[in-house]
Amino acid sequence: MKGSVWQRSRYALILALPVLAAMVSQNIMNLVDTAMVGTIGDAALAAVGLGGFAIFMFQALILGIGTGVQAMAARRKGAGDTGVMAEPLNAGLMLCLLAGPLLSLPLFFAVPGFYPWLNGDPEVIEKGVPYLQLRVLAITFMGINWAFRGYWNAIDLARMYLFTLVSMHVLNILLNYLLIFGKFGFPEMGVTGAGLGTALATLFGSLVHLVLGWRYARRAGFALRFPAGAVLQRLIRLAGPSGIQQLSFSTSFVVLFWIIGQIGTREVAAASVLINIMLLAVLPAMALGLTTASLVGQSLGRRSVREAHRWGWDVVRLALFMLGILALPMWLVPELLLSGFIHDEETRALAVTPMRLVGVFMVVEAFGMILMHGLLGAGDARRTMMAAVSMQWLGFLPIAWVVGPGLGGGLLAVWLAQGAYRLVQAVVFTLMWQRLRWARAQA
């Protein structure tokens, strides 16, 4: 697409808005889910919180399939190969159907054995085990939903993903109400009902995607033929590193909370709020990153490396503007933001300066996040994974342990280390983007 920076930024924003809306919808759903379960006690709340975090780790590898589907489908759209755009989606769905049960079944039987390692409270274990087992059984359907998400994003139809996600959320809320509290003749299942409701809603989302795929992707080759071996191999090559990167990302949060736990309970409470606010605030950058991946892939499909490279920087400018506005309250009134989540004055005081740092460094992180997704959209998944994982596990986490509990620097030292890590990550991905080696990657 040609045009001024403003025209291109406006186009990217229009594409990103449905993705952003879907992400906001997901966060609202998580809050509603937590609020509903929270009415039946702290043990129930802890069980759902731990289970949700564990399932994120368990399904990380299969979620990488969606990234591969997006990169490959975007290339085909850009090249004008509309009759085979859905080939990567067919391959992704086949991989989900093969790999999903291989993950789900062993994990289902392993949950009772390892759950006590997550929390030793007998009541939390009693409620958390069946909840997590039900969530584990839905891993295949979650993979299918992410494969479709990658495809819809790749061909600029993210509104399909948004429609499906909102439908899932509405059903999930309804099922939670019926199954958690036993309304209208349904059994009162408590936390187990929440797990069953989420699993059924995930299955429903897959069915909706399949109907939409049959209606809107059949002309692109959806479900008309088995994917060729070369397509499957290429998808595995792209999805594997992406899945490992997502697994590393989710696991690193476990390690980070363990490190902060060595400092003190107040610090863990403050960090939990800071991280949740940060994850919510960077949603625009994440949505723009997914859009960048599609735009870069489409440009490379048209064999225009220059256009692909320009898209990366155009979207970075847009992300900096949006994140800068969102960061202002964190810089100016951090106490006001924190007061809605942290009611203990000492704990809130611990979080004030780190909150300001979140506002500073999430703007820096926009560089890294946008260009990282640009590299993934170009098919440069292996180098991107190696850079991200090494910076996380060989840099940030060891340094956080040394400066935090090791040297007694406390929560502020850990957050400074995290800010430095975000800065280094932004520099590394910027250098990778500028060197253009990603232009030779295949997708």
From TrEMBL:
NCBIfam families: matE. It is a multi-pass membrane protein. It is found in: Cell inner membrane. CDD domains: MATE_like_7. Keywords: Antiport, Cell membrane, Ion transport, Membrane, Transmembrane, Transmembrane helix, Transport. It comes from Natronospira bacteriovora. The keyword Cell membrane applies. The keyword Plastid does not apply. The chain crosses the membrane at residues 44-69, 89-111, 131-148, 160-182, 194-217, 273-297, 318-337, 357-378. This is Multidrug-efflux transporter. It holds the Pfam family MatE. Its main location: membrane. Coiled coil: none annotated.
